[in-house]
Specification:
single chain, mainly alpha, 14 helices, globular
Length: 409
Amino acid sequence: MDSGNTAWLLIATAMVMVMLPGLALFYGGLVRRKNVLSTIMHSFFGLALVSVVWVLVGFSLAFGPDANLFGVPGLIGNLDFVGFVNVGLTPSTIYGSTIPFVLFAAFQLMFAAITPALITGAFAERKRFGAFVLFTLLWSLVVYSPIAHWVWAADGWLFKLGALDFAGGTVVHAASGVSALVVALLIGRRVANGEPMEPHDIPMTVLGAGLLWFGWFGFNAGSALAADGLAANALLVTNTAAGAATITWVLASYLHKGKVSVVGAVCGAVAGLVAITPASGFVTAGGALIIGLLVGGLCYSATLLRSRLKIDDALDVFAVHGVGGMFGALATGVFATTAINPLGRGLIDGNAGQIGIQLIAIGATIAYATVATFVIIKLVNAILGIRISARDEELGLDLSTHGEVAYQS
């Protein structure tokens, strides 16, 4: 066991945890003031809920030895690690050979917690709290854990196929983004009654974006599982892509609307962070720059299309995380180079076949997340009902659900 690697991953785990309150502030500032507490609660309570679910069974389903489900290998883990049994203090021979296995599991816990929290932006201001809890529980087990097993487990079928996803372009962002779109379509549009749907606190959103940007260094660089050159490069390219995407989103917004949008700047930064996530352990700074420059305009265009189609994905989860994650996964197949990681050989290194593998990973993630999320939503609606009443929606979830208000005046 290496004390330096262990210390770094302890810090990286804490940094990823900080992304949850960062997301809470980011989303909280974007909703109307009567729903800010309910929006923040989604991220905070989701962290608590998934923390328990992950220890009980989620980690085992994601990273346990393959269950060979229905005689098909590579789909889901078995129950060897239920309750963190056999998740010990010594290194694993498979996952992080120089860090405690329990630390690897804790690091992965934070990924499992933030992924369903991303989806909450799609149904902000109109979903029952009980329905949110049941949805998060089921989605974490039925969608997140299996896809994590496919891509990151040593015996997952996409891992064996050679799909490249360093820190979650498919597992985290494509899966949550597509699921958010499904939820938004099924739950329906918010009741406006002539009320503007504008962000109530943009400084709060900027603060949240800053915490996300900071935490993303742990998200991506921590995925190296060591304090080494690969982690250093991941940190650099993460920052580079975020900066480039911020610039292109702001430029696209200015050319379209004639104003320099602060909300646009932070959304651009998040889009860049999303897109570089799968590529961060495989690309150079030059590749990250191109990825960031392209994804800023791409995700901005996706928000315009969403608006034109009148889909009420309240906080543009699909446009930023879904589109950004899919683009990043595909771009990994283009810009991955053995100069950074011997396991990553993409188109620029003469391996055009990697693009096909990335497309298979993207397609499988989209298909499974779409169908599974549809079934989960229908089930939750049948058991609890998804949507609050029109009266409660007009009053706001802070009062109608929590009996509290964020501001006294």
